[in-house]
Amino acid sequence: MSWLTKTLSSSIGKKVLMSLTGLFLCTFLVVHLSGNLQLFYKDGGYAFNTYAVFMTSFPPIKVISYANYFFILFHAFWGLYLEYQNRKARSVRYAVVRNSSSWSSRNMAILGTVLLVYIVVHMGDFWYKYHNEPLPYVQYTSDVRTGQIVANEMPSTYTQDVKKVEISDLETGVHLVIVKDLYKEVARVFQNPLFVLIYIVGMFAVAFHLYHGFQSAFQTLGWNHPKYTPLVRGISTWIFAILIPIGFAAMPIFFYVKHLMGN
Amino acid sequence: MSEGNMNLTLKVWRQKNAKVNGSLETYQVNGISEDMSFLEMFDVLNERLVSEEKEPIAFDHDCREGICGACSMYINGRPHGPLEAVTTCQLHMRSFKDGDTIVVEPWRATAFPVVKDLVVDRAAFDRIIAAGGYVSVNTGNAQDGNAIPIPKEEADKAFAAAACIGCGACVAACKNASAMLFVSAKVSQLALLPQGQPEREERAIKMVAQMDAEGFGNCTNTGACAIECPKEISLENIARLNREYLGSSIASTVA
Ligand code: HEM
Ligand code: SF4
Ligand code: FES
What we know:
Bound molecules: protoporphyrin IX containing FE, iron/sulfur cluster, FE2/S2 (inorganic) cluster
Order of helices and strands of chain B: EEHEEEEEHHHHHHH
Number of helices of chain B: 8
Structural class of chain B: alpha+beta
Shape of chain A: elongated
Radius of gyration of chain B: 20 Å
CATH topology of the largest domain in chain B: Fumarate Reductase Iron-sulfur Protein, Chain B, domain 2
CATH class of the largest domain in chain B: Mainly Alpha
Low-confidence stretches of chain B: none
Oligomer: heterodimer
Largest sheet of chain A: 4 strands, antiparallel
CATH superfamily of the largest domain in chain B: Alpha-helical ferredoxin
C-alpha cells in the first residue's frame, strides 16, 4: 500500500473523505439555494428556466455537477460503511444508556439515509423529467426598452433540438427566448400536499444532518481553535441548520399556497 | 461496617469469563452510608456475598484516589456515574438517593473484552502506548529548568493532556467505541513539548495504526468522550491528533 492509500484507509483518513465530500455538498447547497431563489421572481419563470438551461449546458458546471453526483453517492455509502464499522466496534450493547452528546451527532447515518431517499425522489421529480421527458416549452418575449417580459406557452406538440432558442430583433427591440418550462413543472408538483410534506421532511433531515455535520467537518480536518470554532459552530447552526433548510422549504410552501389562492 | 441508612437496589453485570454470556443480577444492599464511595458500597456487598459463600463481584480498582485509571464502572448509563470530572472511586453515595435502583455494567467495546463481571481487558491501550506513546531518549541528568524555554500556554496544554489516566471512559461513552480522546491526549502531551519532537511524526502514524488495528470505532465528533472524561481531556486534542496524523502522513519521507 502506498502512503496515500494507507492514510486514507486509516480511521482518520476515512473521516477526512467524509468531511471533504460533506463540505463540497455544503457548498453545493449554497449554490443550489441561491439559484433556486429565482423561483420567487414574478417573471413567469423566465430567470429560473434560463438558469436551468445554463446549469445543464455550460461545460464547467456540467463537470461540477457530475462530480456532485459522484460525491453524494460516495459520501452516502462511505458514511454507511463507517456506521457499520462503528457498530461492530461495540458488539455488546449497554442495557442502560444516558447520552451526553447531541441527538444529531448520534443519528448522522439515519439522517443521511433519509436524505438519500429524499435526493432520489427529488431527482426523479425534476432532474429526470428535465432530461428525459418531453416537458412543454414556453416562449418569453421581452421588450428591451421597457424590460417587460411576457410568457406564452408553446403548443404541446412543439419541440426544438437545442435547449434554448434565442432571437433578438434589434429594430423593434424585441427579445424572444424559447426554453423548456421547468418552472411550470415545479409549480405543478407542489400542488400536491404529499410532495410538499416530503420536501419539508427532507429539509428537516438536512437541518439536523448539518447542525452536527458542518462544524464536525472542521474538527475532522483538525481545525479547532478558540477564536474561530465558535464562528464555525454559529455558521453550522444559523446558516446550515436554519436558514438554508427554511429557504428550500419555502419553495414548496410558496407554490402550494399560490395554488390554493388560485394561481 | 455499614452504619448508614440508604437502601439500594443494584443491578450488576455478572459474567464468569469472556467465553460465556453474562446477565444483570439484582442485589439488595441496605444500611449504606452516604459518605461511602461507590467502590466501598461494592466492598460491603462483596463481604456479604463472601459470608454467604457466593462468588464476589469482580471489579477493577487500585489507587481509589482518582489517579490510576483502574476503576471502570458504567453506572446508570454513564461511565464513572452521574458526576462530571470524577472517577468511580471518587464517586460517593451522596450522589444517589435512598431507594434508588442503580444499574452497573462493564465498559462495552469489542476492543475491551470482558474478563469477568465488571472487569474488562484494556491491554489494547497498552499496545497503543507501546506503538509510540513514549520518548526513547536517555534523559540523563536533570537539565536546568530554563535551558529549554517552553511557552506557558504550551506547557499548560501539555500538562492538561498528560492528566489522562487511561481509564477508557472515553471509549465506554462513545457510541462508536472510539479511542480517539485517549490517543489524542497521549499524542498531544508529547507533541507539545521539545522532548517529543524527534519521534513526533512517527508517533502519530504508529499510534493511530495500532488504534485502528485494535478494532476501536471511527470518531464522529459526537463529543460524548470529553463530557464523560474524568480528567476533562478536551476535544481540541482530537483536532490536534488529526493535524498531527495528517501532517505527518503528508510530510513523512517514508513512501
Ligand atoms: C446534501 C447532502 C449532504 C450533505 C451536505 C452532507 C454533509 C455532511 C457533513 C459536512 C458531514 C460531516 C463530516 C465530518 O464529520 O467530518 C457529514 C457526515 C455524515 N454524512 Fe452526510 N451529507 C449529505 C448527505 C448524506 C447522505 C445522503 C448520507 C447517507 C446515506 C450521509 C451520511 C453521513 C454520515 C453517516 C455522516 C457521519 C460520518 C462521520 O462523521 O464519520 N450524508 N455529512
Ligand atoms: S481521555 Fe479521559 S476518559 Fe479517556 S482514557 Fe484518558 S482519562 Fe480516561
Ligand atoms: S481506582 Fe484509581 S482511579 Fe479509581
